[in-house]
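Quick question: what would this complex look like in 3D?
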Amino acid sequence: MTLYFTKEHEWLRVEGDVAVVGITKHAAEELGEIVFFELNVSANDVQLGDSIAVVESVKAASDVYAPVDGVIVEGNPDLASNPELISSDPEGKGWMLKMKLTKEAQLADLLDANAYAALIG
Amino acid sequence: MSEPLLHTPLFSLHEERGARMVPFAGYAMPLHYADGIMTEHQHTRTSAGLFDVSHMGQVALRPIDGDMARVALALERIVPVDVLGLKAGRQRYGFLTNDAGGILDDLMIVNMGQWFLVVINAACKAQDIARMQAELSGDCTVEPLEDRALLALQGPAAETALGRLMPDVATMKFMDARSGTLEGADAIVTRSGYTGEDGFEISVPVADAEHVARALLDQPEVKPIGLGARDSLRLEAGLCLYGSDLDETTSPVEGALEWAIQKVRRNGGARAGGFPGSDLILTQLDKGASRRRVGLLAEGRAPVRHGAELFATNEGGSPIGVVTSGAFGPTLQSPVAMGYVETAYVPVGTKVFAELRGRRIPVTVASMPFVPAGFKR
């Protein structure tokens, strides 16, 4: 299991060829209380940078972008009724989706925990 | 290049309280504090919240010859409300109109007995002051009160909290105005606000703003509240945000603000018309307009926001309206919105659809306010 981060403030926990994806604690704090989460229904076989989900805080809607190429295999079923899990536990129970990696080499371009910590200062 | 952000007199207090500061109308303002928008919203609805609204403009209109009626009649040339009938110690909502019947800004007019206080939106300050100077200077002096800050204390516990420092506010009713001393400061207090709750707006000299704010925050009922909650509170209360829900292209009738135009200024009234755009506005008052601002409740939990187009059916067709404000309502625990629809879709209960991320979400036209007002009438 390896943990990666993106400059777009997402995290990926890679287990075999599947990545669990969510937003970082820093991103969750920036967004404020989350009131709604939804996978992008048209997102299935996605490429890096595609919008794969939307997360809404009281103030604004934000897209979540595919951190790497892959196939979305599952969304977090708890977020429909409890989107606030993204605020309260963004790197745990507030995970957003699982995707099967189709271009694992892209992982090398992501940040590790130290590099992400440096990014957000 | 953007101008550097202006600071209100409470800037350092906001930072000390852990505010997340954001640019708003040229000012650095608190979006929220450590508790977050949802908690701040709920606190205001259940206890009392202190808002810094010092970015708003305060303007004194003082008669040249002591004649308040002359100033009132001069103001009536630029606002369609009954200013002459506004008694000393009372406040009234109004707006500046343009020749096309659109709204240049919405504002509050307070009769302070010997002068009028006009409170205007931050983003419109320069334009409003220029307009008042151009239109009113023959009848009164137009003095921007740049040395005064403005605080709002809002919520059901506002009277208790402010009453400890200024006991006679308990006898004030909604839209009463009074001057007095608050923590040694020369204060102007009105029983009003923009949250749908009971509460007060408190004008004090800039030099006193911080210690007055601290004294209010020392009251156990009171927490500081940012602009984020101010927006969700006013939206649940069905109140307009100038620039989003009202602008130069929306008339008062389209904006569902007929209640603010008293009979005396309408057709058949003693001082009917005589303000910019009066022909169009008075005609619309009699015959209605082709579109109207309504409340909108969307199905599901996804907020429908500013700019979303509204349709009559769940696919195809041309837009029949647009959402002008939308958010998640923390008190309702559901999305709330307002927007403009064509007349046929105005009746409460009408089903329309809002386009959201390429899909159409069922939306029902609803009466406002969404949350009952807590005003002390």
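Answer marked as accepted. The domain at 2-107 of chain A is CATH 2.40.50.100 (OB fold (Dihydrolipoamide Acetyltransferase, E2P)).
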